[in-house]
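Hi L.,

You mentioned the student needs an example of a multi-chain input paired with its predicted structure. This one should do, with 332 residues in total across all chains.
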Amino acid sequence: MKKKTVLAALGGNAILQPKQAATFENQMKNVIESCKFLADLVAKGYRLVITHGNGPQVGNILRQNEEAKDVIPPMSLDVCSAESQGFIGYMIQQALRNELEKIGLEIPVASLVTRVEVSIDDAAFHDPSKPIGGFYTEQEAAKLMIEKNWLVKPDANRGWRRVVPSPKPVRILESDSIMKLLDNGHIVIACGGGGIPVVKDKDGDGVYRGVEAVIDKDLSGCKLAEQIGADLFVILTDVEHVFINYGKENQMALQSVSVGQLAEYVQQGQFSKGSMGPKIEAAISFAKTGGKSIICALEKAAFALQGKSGTVVHSGLAANHQPDVNKGKLIV
Ligand SMILES: Nc1ncnc2c1ncn2[C@@H]1O[C@H](COP(=O)(O)OP(=O)(O)O)[C@@H](O)[C@H]1O
Ligand SMILES: NC(=O)OP(=O)(O)O
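Structure written out for the whole complex:
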């Protein structure tokens, strides 16, 4: 039987938690923990493509460039994104390979620098919304806005953060190479940090050029899942389920939900814009192409694939669709 392909999107907490110092050691420690769960998926027989966030890292790399500008020419944000793909890809590659070897699996793991086409006409270029770098208090934020000319906004009640434009992904440019690596038995880390945003020059000679933005990794992950024909898109985060009335007394975990139902919850404003919102948007978009997604806690990933945890988002089109949850039956 052909192995099923899982596209796993690693949330920010899997690499660096908001209150941790952004040292290499802290990040590597978190990645090693995360890779135990990813290795488990591979041991269960899935073909695996991994994507990951880069918000804290790309913000820090950009700031390093800006602070050192009098000594070394600073790099633009697209170059910083490429650097963050190499940095985080290296950590995952190292940790996952070590975990796999521990359980006797000799599977190559490759990170691919990935470009993602966006539209230069995307309204997001005029309304920066993607938080990057560290967290600040309101007072610190006000100072940074004046001293460094940053745009700083509140980030989902977790503090204030610098924001940059976040256009929608249109096309993953390296998807053929990703497929070839997968077909040759590799685990592939791709589209890290949502991918390096590039646009095709309409007026010039039609070549691609990088643009200063950071794409949402869940939205790019969904596009990648579509382009490589993944059987399942798994969004790994720090909550076990998607909830309605989240954080309130009457909160309720969703176990299996159709796109139609989810769209109603979106209308009701159930999902915060900067956190659960993009995950829901990505899951809806993948379901509209016939794909199935799971949003679940990283440490419950293997359970979620057995229908014992997480929230399954499905198209709702199959007449006999049964919620697969809590039956121990494989989701794909
Ligand atoms: N309706 C909801 N159900 C579950 N979590 C929600 C909901 N609305 C907002 N959240 C928040 O979304 C967070 C996950 O998003 P985020 O922190 O951006 O994830 P990651 O960094 O893992 O990609 C959860 O920790 C939770 O606080
Ligand atoms: N690029 C991106 O979505 O990163 P975070 O998940 O870290 O915000």
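You could point out the following to them. The pocket of phosphoric acid mono(formamide)ester (ligand 2) is lined by residues 12, 53-55, 193-194, 214, 216-217 (CB under 6 Å). The chain is about 35% helix and 20% strand.

Best wishes,
N.
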